[in-house]
Design brief:
elongated, alpha/beta, 2 domains, 197 residues, Helix Hairpins, two-stranded antiparallel ribbon, 45% helix, chloroplast
Length: 197
């Protein structure tokens, strides 16, 4: 990010300043990325559940791609407030989503009057957009991976409240102390996000 937007806590992770932009220290990035990989590998071998969060346009496709590849859950459209802290409501919405999908598969929606079918299809489409990445989630995740701490601050606060370990991809405008493992990197470049995920 530009030198005007930086967080002073990020000073140890910055190697240089060029043309008004801070350059991230890649040796620090490699060290924290290695630490995060060890944590993820250990947790995966014990069958833990992961959630990847990245809702901004540049990260959305990479987050969905990484979640499919790793067979884990993701939120890549919009973080709905209380998604984790108000889990009972989220779970109710997930059950509703599954029921509507079953009705659609069995063809029961076609038997409804046109207006009712349109309302249900709109509701199904909305649920698919916001909860599609977590449709198979049965409980709270064990580890949350967040792309762009600044953008996903609500998700990070919920994880901190619930004591869920977090791995954050942070740019020079973020606070490295908020996440359990912070990986300093450019969170605006699609190639950087995809490489780290």
């Amino acid at each position: 990010h530009g030198t005007r937007k930086w967080n002073p806590k990020m000073a140890p992770y910055i190697s240089a300043k060029r043309k008004g932009i801070h350059i991230t220290n890649l040796t620090r990035t490699a060290r924290f990325l290695s630490e995060a990989c060890d944590l993820v590998f250990d947790a995966a071998s014990r069958g833990k559940q992961f959630l990847i969060v990245g809702t901004k346009n540049k990260a959305a496709d990479s987050v969905a791609w990484a979640a499919i590849k790793a067979r884990c859950h993701c939120v890549n459209k919009k973080w709905l407030g209380g998604m984790l802290t108000n889990w009972s409501t989220t779970e109710t919405r997930l059950h509703k989503f599954r029921d509507l999908r079953m009705e659609q598969k069995t063809g029961r929606l076609n038997r409804l009057p046109k207006r009712d079918a349109a309302v249900v299809k709109r509701q199904l489409s909305r649920l698919q957009t916001y909860l599609g990445g977590i449709k198979y989630m049965t409980g709270l995740p064990d580890i949350v991976i967040i792309v762009d701490q600044h953008e996903e601050y609500t998700a990070l606060r919920e994880c901190i409240t619930l004591g869920i370990p977090t791995i954050c991809l942070i740019d020079t405008n973020c606070d490295p102390d908020l996440a359990d493992i912070s990986i300093p990197a450019n969170d605006d470049a699609i190639s950087s996000i995809r490489l780290i995920l």
